[in-house]
Amino acid sequence: MDIRHVIQVAFVSAASTILLFSSLPSLKTRFVTYGSRATFVNTGGPEANGPKGESSASQAKLGWSQAALDYVTDLQVPHGWFLHFYVVSVLCSFFWATQIVSKSSLLLTVCENAGTGQAMSINQITLMWSFMAIQGLRRLAESILLGKPSASKMWFVHWILGILFYIAMSIAVWIDGAGKLTSLLGHLSLPLPHITLTMKQIAETLLLSPSPLKDITITAPSIRTMVGVPLFLLASGIQNDCHTYLASLPKYTLPDHPIFHTMVCPHYAAECVIYLSLAILGAPHGAWINRTIFTALIFVASNLAVTASTTKDWYTAKFGRENVEYRWRMIPFIF
Hints:
Layout: H1 3-23, H2 25-32, H3 35-43, H4 56-60, H5 64-73, E1 76-78, H6 82-102, H7 105-112, H8 122-146, E2 153-155, H9 156-175, H10 199-208, H11 223-248, H12 266-281, H13 291-319
Antiparallel strand pairs: 1-2
Helix pairs in contact: 1-2, 1-9, 1-13, 3-13, 6-8, 6-9, 7-10, 8-9, 8-11, 11-12, 12-13
């Protein structure tokens, strides 16, 4: 089993499911929207003509399958549980750091099932881990310091999916570096010239080395580093600025910050750029992009695009089309 491929398939499958559900109004109103946007589509928005918008007499005639769907839909958790995503992200980042430093048997098992191919360098692994930890810590701090009490709910599957995403991301940021561990085998004498080393042998050698961190070197920044690092820092700063501004507004107010004049959800665009920067920074030697992180970007972009679209519909209904129609949902000139 190649863990990299499992993670990639999981991200793409989740993205495809979100897009499928969002394309079917009966499923979108039940399972995709949440918070104030869910209230909008379920009580008066353009897609409120599904089961949730029908009279009690009509609902009494629904079949058992729709009744079951309604029951599942009602399994809600507080929207404030978004905080858990970033708690998990931070805990997972530091968990894997301790596993690498301590050369644990769990690390051996994961590396053994990491597949082969192009690999990230030890420097890249360190940088990717650091940026993911920074992202998790920043979002956790924002959730604690900027979050407001809310009665909004979200479907419990959203919560589970978010938890699983950050668990997977804590592995995705370094899993493509498993192959590079062959550089730690330089001292190993091989009696047969054509012997093929397995990932298990590579991982075992890693665990026998004094410290994996000793292989970190200081070198001139590559092109991907010169592109990826500024992108990450800029997008993180813009997203923090957006979140701080939104937290300062009275509830259900149309944002008037200059960056919101162009986009309905610039903080979502910044989130996508953050993951794009990680995909660039984690690109193995000879590649332009890290495939595992890129599939994470596909999931993030799909999820946020659906939410941005519903947010624009909500703004249009609440504040008038003339105040919203000129704003892009998430990506200027594209979407």
